[in-house]
Write a structure and sequence with these properties.
168 residues, mainly alpha, 5 helices, elongated
Length: 168
C-alpha cells in the first residue's frame, strides 16, 4: 500500500457555528415563552388503584372491642390498613399495621387517622381527620371519652370515603 492511499475515511467536519441566542427581536421558538399548562384539579392526585373497602358499623365495632377485650382492635387495624393499601397502593398495609399494633399499640391511632386523611388528600378533598385527630386517643384517654371520640371521627371519615366510592 502506498502512502497516498489512505484506508480510513476523511475526518468529520468540525463543529457547526454556534446558534446565536434568542435576542427578543424575533418571536421565540415554538414551545418557549408560553406558560406550562396546569392539569385539571382532579388530575393532580394519584388515582385509586384497587378495590373499595368495607363500611364498618361504628357501634358494632366498638362493641366487639369490649366483648373481645381489645383483640378485635387488632383485627380492625389489620383490615382497615390492608383495604387502604390495596385501594391506594400506598400506606402500611395490614401485616405491618398488625405488628405495630402488637408491639407499639399507642402509635396505631395516629397511623390510622393519618392514612385516612391521606386517602382524602389523594382524591383532592379536604381530609376530615389527620394525625392530630389521634390526640383524642392519647392524651385524650385521660378524660376517658377521648378514645371514643377519636374512633367515631376516624371510622366515620373512613366509612364516608368508602361510601363516596360506592361501598355499601
Amino acid at each position: 500500500m502506498s502512502s497516498s492511499e489512505n484506508p480510513y475515511p476523511p475526518p468529520a467536519p468540525g463543529p457547526a457555528a454556534p446558534v446565536p441566542p434568542w435576542t427578543g427581536d424575533a418571536p421565540p421558538p415554538p414551545g418557549y415563552g408560553a406558560p406550562m399548562p396546569v392539569p385539571p384539579a382532579g388530575d393532580r392526585y394519584a388515582r385509586p388503584l384497587g378495590p373499595v373497602g368495607q363500611i364498618r358499623s361504628t357501634g358494632l365495632t366498638m362493641l366487639l372491642f369490649f366483648v373481645t377485650l381489645g383483640i378485635w382492635s387488632l383485627v380492625y387495624y389489620y383490615q382497615t390498613h390492608d383495604e387502604m393499601k390495596r385501594h391506594s397502593g400506598e400506606g402500611l398495609g395490614g401485616p405491618i399495621a398488625l405488628v405495630i399494633a402488637i408491639l407499639f399499640g399507642i402509635v396505631n391511632p395516629y397511623l390510622l387517622s393519618a392514612e385516612v386523611g391521606q386517602l382524602y388528600e389523594r382524591s383532592g378533598r379536604t381530609p376530615p381527620v389527620t394525625v392530630l385527630t389521634a390526640l383524642w386517643f392519647f392524651p385524650g384517654m385521660l378524660i376517658i371519652v377521648g378514645p371514643f371520640i377519636w374512633f367515631v371521627r376516624t371510622n366515620r371519615a373512613l366509612n364516608e370515603y368508602w361510601a363516596g366510592l360506592g361501598a355499601r
